[in-house]
Amino acid sequence: MSPLLDVRNLRKSFAVSRSFLAPKRYVRAIDLVNLSVERGEAVGLIGESGCGKSTVARCIMGLIRADAGEILLEGKSLSEARRRRNTRAHERLQMVFQDPYSSLNPRMNIEAILTEPYRIQGKLSVREMRERIVRLLEEVSLPSDSLSKYPQHFSGGQRQRISIARALALRPSLIVADEPLSALDVSVQAQIILLMKKLQKVHELGFLLISHDLGVVRSFCTRVAVMYLGRIVEEGTAQQVLDDPRHPYTVALREASLPPDISARDRLNKIQGEIPSALDPPLGCHFHPRCPRAMARCKSEVPGWSVLPDGRRVACHLYPQAAAPSATQSDKG
User: Fold this and answer.
1) What are the pLDDT digits (tens) for 254-265?
2) 275-282 contacts, C-beta under 8 A, 24 or more apart
3) Where are the extended beta strands (E) located within 212-299?
């Protein structure tokens, strides 16, 4: 059976020009990304700011068009569905954004916000829409008298519950959540995570959670993919990746998320320097300028995937690989 979401060899670059006469340069935000989400599964996509996580989400949602690759939802091409203006594809795929205030129209009350998807469909009567949005509020634990209020009348956590209710309106099979908890207090984050877990179980929802917070990902996701400068470098179960990371970048991310230790932890695990510019990424392994375990071949050869005995995938020269793509194939463009 095919996965719920199947992203294959995704690529996306953005043209950048400093002036009208200057030649265009390109930022490769996504470089041959492969990712999947099974039905009812929560997958976390983690990495530093600027690594391309949100660009992956925007390509999946159709907010921007990928340069190459294929995105399948329930075995069907999303690109083809959008070309044919098939609204069914949009119904099955919804998004929860980072800032619940800016993603909700402050001039619309909650009733108007929640009925908008149904009004666009044009298939329900006013009474049926009202019944459905009342049920939606119940599902996200908000009172029905919220319908007459506006987004500014609610706290950040309540606004995010409204955003989740709107995403649920058309009963999607997959929700893409882009940093949905980063603007919330820790206690409120825990409440929203419990809500998402409940909804995931009740509706057998797939989730793609994009976050830089390893604690949030650990508490919600069953599988994790780690992204660095446009490429996924490690993928496995949440326990494998977050408790026993193998790629040096993942090791460093985990180290950075731990509380400070006055006894000085192993310095070999610390990331060196700043993330390189995506305008001029390093050849070979993108992480090699910052990697404490870099070898000579890391500077020229793009590492292929290694499948470790525990089933996880790691793109690193520290592990034996069946085949590695040449630098000329993957670093040009």
Assistant:
1) 888 776 654 455
2) 275/48, 275/50, 275/51, 275/229, 276/229, 278/27, 278/28, 278/29, 278/50, 278/229, 278/230, 279/16, 279/25, 279/26, 279/27, 281/28, 281/229, 281/230, 281/331
3) 223-228, 231-237
d(CA 114, CA 94): 14
Give the confidence band of 121 by pLDDT, cuts at 50, 70, 90.
confident
Q: 47: left (phi > 0), else alpha (psi -120 to 50), else beta? A: left
Eight-class DSSP state of 149: S
pTM of the model: 0.89
**Residue 187, helix vs strand vs coil:** helix
Question: Do residues 316 and 285 lie in contact, with contact meaning Cβ atoms separated by under 8 Å?
Answer: yes
How far is 147 from 217, CA to CA, in rounded Å?
A: 32
Quote the CA–CA distance of 69 and 77 in Å, as a whole number.
Answer: 11
Q: How far apart are CA 91 and CA 108, in angstroms?
A: 21
Decide the pairing of beta strands 174-178 and 206-211.
parallel
Task: Identify whether the C-beta of residue 139 lies closer than 8 Å to the C-beta of residue 157.
Answer: no
Q: What domains does the chain contain, in order, with CATH numbers?
A: 5-92+170-330 (3.40.50.300), 96-169 (no CATH)
